[in-house]
Amino acid sequence: MDFDSYQKRYGYRTRDLERYLERGLIKGARRIAGGRWFIPEDVRPDYVIRKKASRRFEDDAFDFLKALNTRRTVSARVLLCTDGEYQRLVQFLLREGLVVEDEKHTDHAAGEGLSLTRHALDLLSQRKDRFVEWCQTTIAAAAKGVVS
Fold it and tell me: Cβ-count burial of 140 within 10 angstroms (0-12 exposed, 13-18 middle, 19+ buried)?
């Protein structure tokens, strides 16, 4: 797929797509004759997070939602967590109504098959510390057996 077709299909801005390609975030993309790009179909850019010494569950949840919001691929490898932690994260987001499953896909390993809800978009529009506070309150309530 060429640059223009990919851009129109997935709705990326020109400069953003150029940056993803230059940084190698789209797997399988390569330069071809004339300086143009060949981009495989159905491959989204990886979401790159800032490396942090001690990542919390709330950081992973925030980065996961940001990745879905920007139509990027997110995985356990990208979030620097184990597969078990990743599955726990996905289940938490589904249970709290921040993401819903699409009917088409069921592979959650790359964040595929999940869509953001209005509630998630509202939380993402606030500062990250407010999101972290919401997560901590929700997790504490769940630990006490209170349903949110």
Answer: exposed
The answer to pTM > 0.90 is no
Continuous segment of H or E residues that includes residue 116:
strand 114-116
Contact of 111 with 64, CB cutoff 8 Å? yes
Residue 93 burial (C-beta neighbours within 10 Å; 0-12, 13-18, 19+): buried
* pLDDT tens by residue, 111-136: 667 888 999 999 888 888 898 899 88
Q: How far apart are CA 148 and CA 21, in angstroms?
A: 41
Amino acid at 43: V
Give me the residue spans of the domains in the chain: 3-38, 57-144
Point out which residues pair with 37 in neighbouring strands: 31
Q: Nearest Cα to 131, choosing from 140, 120, 142, 141?
A: 120
52: left (phi over 0), alpha (psi -120 to 50) or beta: beta
Q: CATH for 57-144?
A: 1.10.10.10
- The amino acid at residue 11 is G
